[in-house]
Design a protein that fits this description.
The chain is mainly beta. Helices cover 7% and strands 26% of the residues. The chain has 2 helices and 12 strands; from the N terminus they run βββββββαβαββββ.
Length: 204
């Protein structure tokens, strides 16, 4: 018989039975008995230090703290090990996808309608894009060429998916295109930075 509690950093507590009888820790983690490190797909995690032993394989797409463990492992998730996640929106929440090159501007000043030729801020719902894992697919699905010619080539370094709160004035605008598009909405005002939260940084 074996049982144990696991704390927020994946460390075992109150072990009953042989210590190494069960090597599984947090979901996706497998303990290496010789090193005491937890194998976590692309790198090893050190539960005593509370961080990974190697840098994030997606580099800055996962954030600026390259060795960091999820801030809240009870809700933060990264099923492929290739995209950071700091919040989990509801399916009906409105989201935006922007090139990572604009991160610093958006994080400080939000999304401003003057950025766009039609003076509209475009949105979709999280349920339509939550399974997409690369920026090329998101760009193809979200942007129709006649409205967004200036986006061409701007997602070659990846993009950032953000959830927008306080959206009660969105106007439905139909599909982005007839073949592989998703429903979109627009608003005719700015979204302040305080109403935006990063969902994930998505590689090219």
């Amino acid at each position: 018989m074996w049982s144990a509690d696991i704390d927020v950093y994946g460390e075992r507590r109150n072990v009953v039975g042989e210590k190494q009888a069960c090597p599984f820790r947090w979901p996706g983690q497998y303990e290496d008995e010789e090193t005491g490190l937890y194998y976590n797909r692309f790198r090893y995690y050190d539960s005593e230090a509370g961080e990974y032993t190697r840098q994030d394989p997606i580099r800055l797409f996962g954030g600026f703290r390259l060795y960091v463990y999820p801030e809240n492992p009870s809700i933060d998730f990264d099923p492929f090990g290739l995209a950071g996640s700091s919040c989990i929106p509801d399916d009906e929440d409105f989201v935006r996808f922007d090139p990572t090159a604009y991160d610093s501007s958006i994080d400080s000043g939000g999304v401003q309608k003057r950025f766009f030729s039609d003076a509209r801020v475009w949105l979709t719902k999280y349920k339509y894009v939550k399974h997409v894992t690369n920026a090329s697919e998101l760009e193809q699905n979200l942007y129709r060429k006649n409205l967004w010619p200036s986006t061409q080539g701007k997602f070659t370094s990846g993009g950032t998916l953000r959830v927008a709160s306080g959206i009660t004035d969105a106007t439905p605008a139909g599909l982005t295109n007839k073949t592989n598009g998703v429903p979109q909405w627009f608003i005719t005002r700015d979204i302040p930075a305080s109403d935006l939260a990063t969902v994930s940084r998505i590689p090219p």
